[in-house]
Design a protein that fits this description.
Elements: E1 4-8, H1 14-31, E2 34-41, H2 46-49, H3 56-74, E3 81-87, H4 90-101, E4 105-109, H5 115-120, H6 123-130, E5 134-138
Parallel strand pairs: 1-2, 1-4, 2-3, 4-5
Helix pairs in contact: 4-6
Length: 139
Amino acid sequence: MFSKILVPVDLSDPEHFETAVKSASEMARQNGAELRLVTVVAPVQPTVAHYLPADTHQKFIEDARAQLDELAAASGLGDKASTVVHEGNIYHEVLDEAEACGADLIVMGSHRPGMSTYLLGSNAARIVRHAACSVLVLR
């Protein structure tokens, strides 16, 4: 049914990504699909960068890549699981990655909606509205 499943991972929120990764891994196994894990690292603002060691941002990216690689290995899918780290705005980068890798399903965890979500919109809501493929949001 699905051949490429993309899972956006917020490494600071294991409560939400663990369920998504586990569910997507099982779906990938059942369908013989590939699993692609993506995380987005926010760029360091120039006003803050001045006070940080020069390699701080690169260390953030390397740490994120290592954590994603561990999740991919734990999925049990072997070479059918891959990872990528992007920099920038979360929903733009997730949508770009879905298009670039040819994902036909995005599986993601989401917080229970609050009043700020209704007024401003969350990353999950924006991804659901703008994705060219199916999106499964787990709570």
